[in-house]
Amino acid sequence: MQAGNFIRALFAACLVPVLAAGCMPRPAVSSPAHGTASLGVTSMTPHVTSTGIVTDFADVVQRDSPTVVNISAAKGTSVANMTPLWPPAADEHDPFIQFFRQFSPSQPSQPLLPLGTLGSGFIISPDGYILTDARVVAGATQIRVKLADRREFKASVVGVDVPSNIALLKIDAHGLPTVKIGAPSNVKVGQWVVSIGAPYGFENSVTAGIISSKARLVPDETYIPLIQTDLTLNAADSGGPLFDLNGDVVGVDAPVHRTFQGLSFAIPIDVAMKIEQQLKLHGKVEHGRLGVTIQEVSAPLARSFGMTKPVGALISSTDRNGPSAKAGLRAGDVILKLNGQEITDSTQLPMAVADQRPGSAVQVEFWRDHRAHQISVVLGTMQNDSLAPDASDVSSQTVGQFGLTVRGLTSEERRKFGVAGGVRVEQSAGPAALAGIRPGDIISRVGNTPISNVTQLRHGLQNAGSDVTLLLQRDGQPIFVAIDLG
Questions:
Q1: Are 482 and 468 in contact (CB under 8 A)?
Q2: Is 128 left (phi over 0), alpha (psi -120 to 50) or beta?
Q3: Do 293 and 344 belong together in one domain?
């Protein structure tokens, strides 16, 4: 009897943990494939989920971030640091002063603060050539480049091409890591891209997104059809590289005016490298100019013109004294070919013209009166501000001792205020404020000379003497003001 009780007690003791184990939740374990053994090891770098969504850009960043640089460009004159109002000047050993100094902001060691911009760039050759956005460095008096390994170099400007927004820099270094140049023609709308830059000065910041369009022509920005993305970019990202998931550079980040807030753009790298070669050889690039304003040919327009399909670039207006008008082209003509190259889309024409040398004669095939015609046009020269705002106007700049901080006008502002040129006042101090100039005013003339960008304003003010008259536009009304520097 006692032996039976002992056996039953032993059986019950063993049954309790078995039953308890059966009620415990178990982690889900996937069954190994037939013929393989499960070792309990999980992959550490899953790049694509079962749905095809990319989840990891670390390989691209790790491999290519050493090729990205941060650029600091000092522009114009320096401004004095503000003097703190508290504590008041007194003996350094005064305990009253020592007590309150701990609550006051410390003064920087440098007596002057340089005006300038921040941007990004990337190394294209081991001997120190760097590609960036022209707006980052145009008009700079000093440029510093910081590498990913924290080394800093003074950079020289090899060349700046404003119409394309491309600049080439050089630093005195060797054996540098370089990017791999990709092929923008191979990218597809909807594919993933990665950008590395320095938004608000935060170095080596990474953002990812998709390509929204491969050929977006942005009026008044550049003649180049841009790559549009949904990346979140800041002005300090300008000039940074746009990578595909192979780690190849397919574009140069070029955030445009706030008119297109929420959209990001990049200059195709193949176009940028063509500009780079010219800058390296000659220090500048010459672009042909046709002197026309164009638009897309829609299907209804094509039918009204007697065309079988909507192709070409429709001329909406011509410069009165421009190359096209002199050759006989007029509004309503549709350009079909340039030197035998078919213009199937209007975005192709600006690139095709800009690639030609000024003064060269190009053969233009165009559609007029329900049939095709041929004409020869001698190209003019594209000026730096003919298609894009002056590079130095993109960010606000202080103009000398006049107390003015100004910037260039966007195309939207020019339309809104009904002006062809000028600069917008962002801040007014010193002599400018005493003269009555206010933020929001548009300066359109210095003396009797019209201005369209910051460079022209600075030049006009510097050569105006002690008394200078400015013509402003304020609330749609012209106003003359005089600044006395005496």
A1: yes
A2: left
A3: yes
Helix (H, G, I), strand (E, B) or coil at 123: strand
**Per the domain annotation, does 96 fall within a domain?**
yes
In a domain, residue 48? The reply is: no
Cα dihedral 45→49→52→56 (10° resolution): -40
Which residues neighbour 14 within 8 Å (Cβ) at sequence distance 6 or greater? none
pLDDT interval class at 203 (50, 70, 90) = confident
Strand bridging mode 423-428 / 404-408: antiparallel
| CA separation, residue 263 to residues 133, 379, 384 (Å) | 17, 33, 25
CB contact at 8 A, 408 and 385 = no
Shared-domain flag, residues 90 and 230: yes
Structure-block tokens of residue 377? 């046009």
Question: 11-45 pLDDT, tens per residue?
Answer: 455 444 444 444 444 344 343 333 333 333 333 34
As a whole number of angstroms, the distance between CA 332 and CA 37 comes to: 73
Say how far apart CA 127 and CA 134 lie, in whole Å: 21
Q: What's the pLDDT tens digit per position in 45-100?
A: 435 544 455 557 888 888 999 999 999 988 654 444 444 444 455 555 556 555 55
